[in-house]
UniProtKB/TrEMBL annotation:
Its EC number is 2.1.3.3. One of its GO terms (cellular component) is cytoplasm. Transmembrane segments: none annotated. This is Ornithine carbamoyltransferase. It catalyses: carbamoyl phosphate + L-ornithine = L-citrulline + phosphate + H(+). It comes from Spiribacter aquaticus. Keywords: Cytoplasm, Transferase. GO terms for molecular function: amino acid binding; ornithine carbamoyltransferase activity.
């Protein structure tokens, strides 16, 4: 039987998503108790990073250790990937040696090609198009504070990037509305495929009635040369106290981090009482442990 992969949120069904989120909350409680839980003893996760990372690397590496296994950090600088070894050949070799592989890269097609040649589960640790592991943590954080997302409204302030697309997928799976606040040129190209999502050029209209306001860096990794243009184009979309006031008192604030205070968000919002960003970051650990338990344990 082919392995199951987690390349986008849509690779799991809504029921599995709920199961993983429940398990993530249980694993968080176990971790806070100091209890040991080591179902992946002897298992190894290979981690390929073609872009920088703090949270993803540490949460997967610490998560595997806490589950009783271990993780290998593989950079193109010191593997043959950086010298042109085909991704499929790398997948065939690694999947004979490790129990799962996490990849952070540029083109989404790279993780698809790797998964197509892999005998073990492949996890997307961020591509230009998706960041599904972050959504597991974000949804877990939402549930801990506010319960169900069904019927709620989330405002995404920023371009149609990897995080935005994972939020669009989540809106379909969990049946909530997503309002995307961005200049016209930055709306997601595939918006029409996501009926629960809409685009607003007016930032106030995007956040009106939102239960959660989310933002992210305006120039994602790989877009560094667009940074100056984007700073100007997105200036009116900054998440500040005035925008949070337009959302209403009920609204929480999330950011996948790293954050740029004074650009996409002001310090008073991200460091203020409605921000749940530190819990959101910690939940990367718990949500991915739930994912690893589910992907690695049953099929081997
Ligand atoms: N949010 C997130 O993925 O952070 P890193 O880039 O530090 O992994
Ligand atoms: N959209 C950002 C997310 C970083 C975790 C990026 O791709 O750089």
């Amino acid at each position: 039987m082919p392995p199951r992969h987690f390349l986008t949120l849509a690779d799991i069904d809504a029921e599995t998503l709920e199961t993983l989120l429940r398990r993530a909350a249980e694993l968080r409680a176990l971790h806070h108790d100091g209890s040991l839980h080591e179902p992946l003893r002897g298992r190894v996760l290979g981690m390929i990073f073609e872009k920088s990372s703090t949270r993803t690397r540490v949460s997967f590496e610490a998560g595997m250790a806490q589950l009783g296994g271990s993780a290998l950090f593989l950079s193109p600088r010191d593997t043959q990937l950086g010298r042109g070894e085909p991704i499929e050949d790398t997948a065939r070799v690694l999947s004979g040696m490790v129990d799962a592989v996490m990849i952070r890269t540029f083109d989404h097609s790279t993780v698809e090609r790797f998964a197509g040649a892999s005998r073990v589960p492949v996890i997307n640790g961020l591509t230009d198009d998706h960041h599904p592991c972050q959504l597991l943590a974000d949804l877990q954080t939402w549930q801990a504070h506010r319960g169900e997302l069904q019927g709620r409204t989330v405002a995404w302030m920023g371009d149609g990037n990897n995080m935005c697309r994972s939020w669009m997928q989540a809106a379909e799976m969990m049946d909530f509305r997503l309002a995307i606040g961005a200049p016209s040129a930055y709306a997601p190209e595939d918006l029409a495929d996501y009926p629960n999502s809409r685009h607003e050029t007016d930032p106030q209209a995007a956040v009106e009635g939102a239960d959660l306001v989310v933002t992210d860096v305006w120039a994602s990794m790989g877009m560094e040369d667009e940074r100056q243009t984007r700073l100007e184009d997105f200036a009116a979309y900054q998440v500040n106290e005035a925008l949070m006031a337009a959302a209403g008192e009920q609204a929480l604030f999330m950011h996948c981090l790293p954050a740029h205070r004074g650009e996409e968000v002001t310090a008073d919002v991200i460091d203020g009482p409605r921000s749940v960003v530190w819990e959101e970051a910690e939940n990367r650990l718990h949500a991915q442990k739930a994912l690893l338990e589910w992907l690695v344990t049953p099929r081997r």
